[in-house]
Amino acid sequence: MTGLPERVRDRRPLVHAMTNYVTMDWVARGLLAAGARPVMARDGAEAPQVVAVADALVLNLGNWSPALQQAMLEAGEVASRHGIPVVLDPVGAGGTAIRTRAALELLERVKVTAVRGNAGEIMALAGDQGLVRGVDAAQEALGLRVERAARAVARRSGCVVAVTGPADLVTDGRRTLAVRAGHPLMAQIPGSGCLATALVAAALAAQGDGAPSVAVVAEALLWAGWAGEEAARKASGPGSFAVAYLDQLGQAGPLPAGRIAPPLSDLLSLYVLVSGATPLSVVEAVLQAGCRMIQFREKHLPLPVQVEAAARVREACWRHGALLLINDRVDLAQAVGADGVHLGQDDLPVAVARRILGPGAIVGATCETAGEARIAQAAGADYIGTGPVYATPSKADAGKPYGPDVVRRVSEAIRLPVVGIGGIGIGGAAPVIRAGGVGVAVISSVVGAPDPGAAARAILDEVERAKEGVLA
């Protein structure tokens, strides 16, 4: 299959962009640079006729009015009848009640294929109050809340939802992808989000007869963000950046690999801890069962033996697309090329580990209280493990179990993903998820099971069912 830029140029889709006056010229220029063809009829008498011959429709609530709302409803209904992808940009939803109601009405009456908005807008569509300042939202302050809101909107409306910001998130309610691309200069161009919405529409149109998917929308956002990165290399400021951005959209070849992946909250669904004594066949079995996060935890073997054992686990994780974290030892993580570390309260401080390993590493921390979790979050942790939830034989110094409520207390205090740890087996995972956790960390219930792969699959299925129940 060819890359997205080539597909758009080959297909040259006609994108009917009912976008706002402030960004209309920019969106038209961007679509042309990308290889698509823009048309921008906003009149209620004309718009339904134009969309009937278009390949995709964009409904953008910027410069909203009652007349435009009616025109969008009529155009959207025509697009739905013709099987044309419709992309909604709920500009300002959450900022005013009128815009929120307008976006919800479009979602209810039009068969929307995808929604592209910022964090506050998507939160508003989910029924949360949202956090909207003009057209911006503090996504980094929302964390897991916005991810859950996006999944809820996607499941309720039967569409793909994309949340754009410092990191983009794309979901259909079941499958979720994170997109790492973009540059701060993009925020200084009026209409960068509007153009991203239009590129999503062009991508869906260029996909052909296949069902719209999370991957196509994610690829469109990667294209938009990567063009910004490349343009920033050539620009001296916002003015030259805008020109370079259009040039880059017109010149884009293959998009960079490795920028689209499941979010950390999904990778943490089942988090298996292994040691240097764990047979490699057990590691392979749990990875084949769907586990995507392994922690190497070894307290007794000589360091050279630990390096050899951890390197074998690292190779297995590479083969299965899983991540490997090292318990406690930053030096061991560096030695074997692990993806990060997990630290206890008596280990190297989170901030020091972050400084040594850099911003791309994953740093987790064990915290038993909300206060400890807030400190770890401020220091740069990516996720929190909390417990013990239940009594555990795997950690001799584990204290009295707190029950699933410890997950609730910690998850409500921070914005990071929270994993329950301690004594969790089949039947014990669902309460952790219902309490606000994104996953469970396990040792003996999987590694010590007669069939580790089957045990891992059973717990992962329980976690996934519980997550669906939380969103229902």
TrEMBL record:
Binds 1 Mg(2+) ion per subunit. Keywords: ATP-binding, Kinase, Magnesium, Metal-binding, Nucleotide-binding, Thiamine biosynthesis, Transferase. Gene3D superfamilies: 3.40.1190.20, Aldolase class I. ATP binds at R116, T164. Substrate binds at M40, G191. GO terms for molecular function: kinase activity. Belongs to the Thz kinase family. This is Multifunctional fusion protein. It comes from Symbiobacterium terraclitae. The gene is thiE.
